[in-house]
């Protein structure tokens, strides 16, 4: 007699768990797809309304009347908390049509901001930002350049790209910002990066005596720096000395050369003018002729210095023409950086295109700035931060090129 096949009294939990797990995973996936489709529909509608609202649309006449055409919404993707969607630009459109309304479009979609990444043809990807990508600090590593043509870090842009600049590139640098906006911290970072290079000399005038001066004692740079407001003649004399050195270089330019290449014997001279309008105001109050002498020396450095390997880094709260030696002087600055300033000051330094950026930037956190350069749109960035003032002093003491 054969034994009947035995049926287990209890369920095989392992088997049924596998079955339920599979079902649960399918339900979860279905719910996810439904939620995704709902979000896609919502965003598609909001995108259309937002585009029409900012005027990013075309009106087309059809048999039934006038219809509005907006950049077509493609597909939504939400991956690891990052929300993106594709969109097709209007015929004749450019990605800038979207970037110039970026904030208003993003706010209409319920996000903090957006970024536009071109994909190909008329299609672009819109990356929606939940929060300010520049919210987190950006620590300056112990980066020390060894040559004037090496890149120094200026900051990190919203897309995470690190923006750099080589002093050897023929550009003077203008930096403006209200009190506490981050001008000095930026300058500390920049100078700490170049202070060791054997072909760079850091010279200049600093009425505050914090950026230049005492921290540079014992370095090769110290002899070319003047600080404080007690002896304003010393500032004029230092600037005259720099102009004389510039003239000497221009007069002794090697044959078949039209510019000086920085070397250890003819270093690139970075002329730092910390709070320059303050120096001019103080000089004007004392003696108008002294103010004129300072202005004309600076004008010569900014207009003729590039070929002689002179670069000027001028810092001011506002880059108003009459505060920085006139409109002609201001025009000589190719690289322009604005920390928190009122909207009007932003326009003054970066042009009319920056007007729309004004309201938000007027309240931005210390260390956040707009950078513009010839051929480059205004880019928002976070300047690197090397730490407190003591850390700056330590880095200069440790790495600053020694006086030979
Ligand atoms: N890039 C940055 N990242 C983080 N914090 C920063 C940054 N820059 C500045 N800060 C903070 O803001 C404070 C003020 O910055 P800073 O002294 O550079 O301003 P400032 O524009 O030079 O002001 P002032 O005109 O009064 O000298 C710093 O002490 C620091 O705490």
Automatic annotation (TrEMBL):
Ribosomal protein keyword on record: no
Binding site for ATP: 177-184
FtsK domain location: 158-348
Residue ranges crossing the lipid bilayer per the database entry: none
Positions in coiled-coil regions: none
Keywords assigned by UniProt, alphabetized: ATP-binding, Nucleotide-binding
InterPro entries with a match to the protein in the record: FtsK_dom, P-loop_NTPase
Recorded GO MF terms: ATP binding; DNA binding
Protein known as: S-DNA-T family DNA segregation ATPase FtsK/SpoIIIE
């Amino acid at each position: 007699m054969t034994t009947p096949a035995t049926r287990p009294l209890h369920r095989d939990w392992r088997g049924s768990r596998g079955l339920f797990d599979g079902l649960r995973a399918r339900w979860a996936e279905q719910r996810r797809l439904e939620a995704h489709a709902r979000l896609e529909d919502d965003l598609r509608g909001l995108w259309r309304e937002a585009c029409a609202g900012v005027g990013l649309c075309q009106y087309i006449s059809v048999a039934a009347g006038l219809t509005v055409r907006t950049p077509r919404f493609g597909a939504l993707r939400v991956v690891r908390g990052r929300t993106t969607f594709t969109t097709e630009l209007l015929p004749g459109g450019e990605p800038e049509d979207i970037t110039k309304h970026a904030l208003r479009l993003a706010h209409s979609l319920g996000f903090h901001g957006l970024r536009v990444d071109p994909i190909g043809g008329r299609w672009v990807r819109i990356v929606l930002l939940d929060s300010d990508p520049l919210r987190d600090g950006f620590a300056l590593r112990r980066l020390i350049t060894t040559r004037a043509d090496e890149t120094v870090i200026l900051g990190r842009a919203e897309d995470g790209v690190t923006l750099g600049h080589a002093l050897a590139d023929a550009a003077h640098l203008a930096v403006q910002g209200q009190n506490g906006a981050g001008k000095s911290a930026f300058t500390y970072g920049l100078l700490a990066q170049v202070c060791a290079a054997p072909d760079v000399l850091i010279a200049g005038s600093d009425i505050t005596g914090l950026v230049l001066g005492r921290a540079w004692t014992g370095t090769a740079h110290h002899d070319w720096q003047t600080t404080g407001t007690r002896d304003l003649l010393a500032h004029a004399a230092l600037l005259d000395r720099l102009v004389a050195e510039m003239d000497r270089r221009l007069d002794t330019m090697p044959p078949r050369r039209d510019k000086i290449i920085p070397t250890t014997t003819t270093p690139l001279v970075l002329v730092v003018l910390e709070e320059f309008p303050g120096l001019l105001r103080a000089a004007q109050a004392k003696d108008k002729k002294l103010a004129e002498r300072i202005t004309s020396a600076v004008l010569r450095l900014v207009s003729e210095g590039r070929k002689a390997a002179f670069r000027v880094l001028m810092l001011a709260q506002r880059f108003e023409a009459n505060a920085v030696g006139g409109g002609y002087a201001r025009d000589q600055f190719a690289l322009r950086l604005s920390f928190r300033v009122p909207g009007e000051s932003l326009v003054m330094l970066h042009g009319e295109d920056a007007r729309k950026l004004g309201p938000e930037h007027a309240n931005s956190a210390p260390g956040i700035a707009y950078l513009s350069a010839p051929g480059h749109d205004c880019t928002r960035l976070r300047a690197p931060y090397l730490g407190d003032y003591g850390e700056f002093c330590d880095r200069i003491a440790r790495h600053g090129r020694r006086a030979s």
